[in-house]
Amino acid sequence: MNAPLPQTANDAFRRALSGMLYGIMRWDQLSGFWGKVDASAGWYVYAVGEAVPAEPADAQHVQKFIADIDALLHKEHEEDYCGIVYADDLEHPAFIKIYDPNHLGSSCGSSKNPPLPGWTMSQVPPTELTPAIVPQSRRRWWQGFLASLR
User: Fold this and answer.
1) Using an 8 Å Cβ cutoff, are 76 and 103 in contact?
2) Shortest CA distance to 101 belongs to which of 83, 123, 127?
3) HEC string of the chain?
4) Looking at the domain assignment, is residue 139 inside a domain?
5) How many domains is the chain partitioned into structurally?
6) pTM for this model (two decimals)
7) Dihedral (C-alpha) 91, 93, 98, 104: value to the nearest 10 degrees?
8) Which pLDDT belongs to residue 133?
9) CB count, 10 Å around CB of 72?
10) Is residue 69 assigned to a domain?
11) 37: left (phi over 0), alpha (psi -120 to 50) or beta
12) Distance (Å, whole) CA 85 – CA 25
């Protein structure tokens, strides 16, 4: 009898990415949700299509990412509802998936090929995800975010 293969962090990340997530539908819910994210919990903040982070971000960088991504979502998602942020647990999240408001496709997952999120926050190391295209405006936003941390 073969022993089961050990689970890797990548397996856990892929399972979380495609697993059961809860959508945050209203802007006021998103504001409350960010307050429930423990910034010091060891978050890997990942911009899909960019280099996978080797280490979790420190609490200061997580807080800055949350503030910056929240501002970007409010500015660019021109809807009266949110609906593009998903988490594994709305009270004690360990995995968060954030869709790019300018490249949504069918983010609800009803498509056979749902789009990849624009960003993830995970307490397990992420697996490299390669989207069909990462717009230059998003690359510049991410590079600006990284530069602001120095």
Assistant:
1) no
2) 83
3) CCCCCCCCHHHHHHHHHHCCCEEECCHHHHHHHHCCCCCCCCCEEEECCCCCCCCCCCHHHHHHHHHHHHHHHHHHCCCCCCCCEEECCCCCCCEEEECCCCCCCCCCCCCCCCCCCCEEEECCCCCCCCCCCCCHHHHHHHHHHHHHCC
4) yes
5) 1
6) 0.85
7) -60
8) 77
9) 19
10) yes
11) beta
12) 8
Per-residue pLDDT tens digits for 36-65: 999 999 999 999 999 999 999 999 999 999
Q: What per-residue confidence (pLDDT) applies to 148?
A: 87
Please tell me the distance from the alpha carbon of residue 93 to that of residue 37, in angstroms, as a whole number: 6
Q: Binning pLDDT at 50, 70 and 90, where does residue 8 land? A: low
Inside any domain, residue 1: no
Span 126-149, pLDDT tens digits: 999 987 778 788 889 888 888 888
Task: Find the mean pLDDT for residues 79-106.
Answer: 87
Say if 2 falls within a structural domain: no
Range of the structural domain that residue 37 is part of: 19-148
Indicate whether 25 pLDDT > 70: yes
Amino acid (1-letter code) at residue 130: T
Amino acid at 92: H
